[in-house]
Amino acid sequence: MTTVTLPKHLEAWAESEVAAGRAESVEVLTAKAVAGYRRELEAFRATLDAASAEARAGHSIPLEVVMAEFEALYPDEG
C-alpha cells in the first residue's frame, strides 16, 4: 500500500469528516476522492477523444464562428 501525505488543511478536513461520522476513515475518504477524480478525468479525456475524432472527420466549427457566438452571448467579456 502506498502512503499518501495530505496537505495539513486537507488532512484536518478529512479528520473532521471522520470525527463527524461522515467518513469511515481518512484512508477510505482519500480512496473515494482519488476514485472520483479518476472518473472525472477519464470522462474528460473521453470527451477530448470524441472531439478530436469529430475534428479529424471534418465535423468542426471554425474558431471565428465560435468566437462570434460567444461575443453575441457575452458582449462584455470580449
Task: Give a short overview.
The chain is mostly helical and 78 residues long. It has helices spanning 8-19, 26-56, 63-73.
What does this structure look like?
The chain has 78 residues and is mostly helical. The protein has one domain. It is built from three helices and no strands. The protein has helices at 8-19, 26-56, 63-73. It is elongated and about 50 Å long. The N and C termini lie far apart (50 Å). The relative contact order is 0.06.
Blueprint of the fold:
Elements: H1 8-19, H2 26-56, H3 63-73
Distinctive features:
78 residues; mainly alpha
N- and C-termini, Cα separation: 50 Å
Query: How does the major sheet shape up?
Result: none
Give the overall form. Answer: elongated
**Helicity, in percent?**
55-70%
Q: Kindly state the mean pLDDT as a whole number?
A: 94
- As a percent range, the share of strand residues is under 5%
Secondary-structure element sequence? HHH
What is the total domain count?
1
Uncertain runs: none
The value of Rg in angstroms is: 21 Å
Q: Helix- and strand-based class?
A: mainly alpha
> Counting H and I runs of at least 4 residues, what is the number of helices?
3
* DSSP E strands, number: 0
